[in-house]
Amino acid sequence: SEERSLNFIEEIIENDLNSGKYETLITRFPPEPNGYLHIGHAKAICLNFGLSQKYGGYTNLRFDDTNPVTEKTEYVDSQQQDIKWLGFQWKNELYTSDYFQTLHDFAVKLIEKGLAYVDHGTAEEIAALKGTPTEPGKDSPYRSRSTEENLELFAEMKAGKFEDGACTLRAKIDMSSPNMLMRDPIIYRIKHAEHHRTGNTWCIYPMYDFAHGQSDSIESITHSLCTLEYVSHRELYNWFIEMLEIFPSQQYEFARLNLTYTVMSKRKLLQLVNEGVVSGWNDPRMPTISGLRRRGYTPESIREFCERIGIAKRENLIELSLLEFCVREHLNKTANRVMAVLDPIKLVITNYPEGQSEILIGENNPEAEDKGGSREIPFSNELWIEREDFMEEPAKKWFRLAPGAMVRLKNAYIVQCDDFIKDENGNVTEIRCSYFPNSKSGEDTSELHVKGTIHWVSTAHAKTAEVRIYDRLFSVESPDSEEGDFKDYLNSDSVRVIKQAYIEPYLAQADMDSRYQFIRKGYYCLDLESTPEHLVFNQTVGLKDAWAK
Ligand code: ATP
Ligand code: MG
Ligand code: MG
């Protein structure tokens, strides 16, 4: 892609590297393994890995697994697969849970410095004393406990002496700070739950704010990039690092990706999965990386999308059509053209010998430098064409088939419609044509001039396939900002299944990694459920932006 100016994070990094503040850029991508990654994560992945590639540093993959209840190994595995598929490789695979002992020791250090205390208040009691953004909070009755008592109580918390919620460890900062997060935040809570990696070793778990910055610091992360929701957390991030006297990682915030016609939080996507609204995390309508992959998106197109949306400091809403544009552009360059008839009607060529056939040659991709090679296409006197390519009473400027009209059959001959047959209900069932033997594509000497070209498949040679065509998952631009539940705004018509489409025989050898342009119809790929006996294709995207105004 073309040259662009530096974004604000690149400016910061270049300054830091030029001034010698850091020698090597180290970033991290820190997903919580509580769901599958989505296109929003792709933005953070492209940012973090893209920066370290550009500046010759490295990126760690750190699973931010501090909540034993929602995390699963299935998610760890899928997240790794998705990052690799996007084209990135991390330097170290790390887990916040590997730092549980160190984080515990950091907490002890804070207690020893008189900077943390055990609070027996309930969640409600603690909240009641927090104050409001305009009014200072009040000290907890447990705030003035001695260091010895706090050390002992924290040890008892760790040893499992208390039940969930009986007490917490809080940082002792400032109950009248204008930043509510600085009003003695909870840093450890009790949870008697099995953790996906540490099992039952721990029954106390660090809060996000106590884990994240310190984990960055442990790994000597130089630039810790996160989304704007964390702006107010930065003060706390810095406070812990300063009080603990550890490596000064620095946090910078950028605008998260919001995309029209979808939702992006893992919690909400999980709801769609659990309630059966979609077939799974990798349903082709999902904004997850695995859903996009199954839909036929390429890693290149997703990276290009992330590059185009750029990095901003202010929230915005990106059009889904931009993502579609990016994949359409990439597939236009790379996908082989093939013929598939989705809504078939029979066309009989009356002057072509019955029972005879010939092999025609089709160029695979006129947009590719090598034209993508070529393929063989069988032709005969009986073809399937699209029902919509025939009009009994043609509109003005109709260049396709109609009584008396001529059209070119792609890669084949020019035909003229002589007649058509209707059933008792008045539906056209067959179109009868004659062909011009001297009009063969590539060696046409007929001097006939036709404006329209249509696709077709020989009935005797056609294979059948199921074709799934998708629409947006939600019917409104921003389901998150509508009144009521986001699920009230689902598009009830987001998938259309064509049980029996006819495809050219070449497509019987399609593999999972290939993408195709069904000429005049859109871009398609095999679905995960496809078998050689029952081919299933997904539409990735139509040929044109159907939503363009
Ligand atoms: P979700 O609510 O979807 O679970 P999250 O922020 O809780 O999002 P994490 O697994 O913690 O999910 O995210 C890992 C990284 O991805 C974080 O650094 C986070 O800032 C980033 N990220 C998550 N969602 C987006 C988004 N929509 N745009 C850009 N970055 C995102
Ligand atoms: Mg998170
Ligand atoms: Mg989350």
From TrEMBL:
A single cellular component GO annotation: cytosol
Keyword ATP-binding belongs to the record: yes
GO biological process: glutaminyl-tRNA aminoacylation; glutamyl-tRNA aminoacylation
Chain ranges for the short sequence motif 'KMSKS' region as given in the UniProt record: 263-267
Binding site for L-glutamine: D64, Y208
Any one Gene Ontology molecular-function term assigned to this protein's record: glutamine-tRNA ligase activity
Protein's cellular compartments: Cytoplasm
Catalytic activity line of the entry: tRNA(Gln) + L-glutamine + ATP = L-glutaminyl-tRNA(Gln) + AMP + diphosphate
Keyword line: Aminoacyl-tRNA synthetase, ATP-binding, Cytoplasm, Ligase, Nucleotide-binding, Protein biosynthesis
Record's keyword annotation contains Aminoacyl-tRNA synthetase: yes
Amino-acid positions noted as binding ATP in the UniProt annotation, renumbered to this chain: 32-34, 38-44, 227, 256-257, 264-266
CDD domains, A to Z: GlnRS_core
Record-annotated tRNA synthetases class I (E and Q) anti-codon binding domain positions: 453-527
Entry superkingdom: Bacteria
Enzyme class of the recorded protein, top EC level: ligase
Primary localization class, coarse: cytoplasm
EC assignment: 6.1.1.18
Motif residue range(s): 'HIGH' region: 31-41
Domain Glutamyl/glutaminyl-tRNA synthetase class Ib anti-codon binding: 335-435
Protein family (similarity comment): Belongs to the class-I aminoacyl-tRNA synthetase family.
Subunit structure: Monomer.
Family annotation (HAMAP family): Gln_tRNA_synth
Protein name, per record: Glutamine--tRNA ligase
Organism (species): Pedobacter antarcticus 4BY
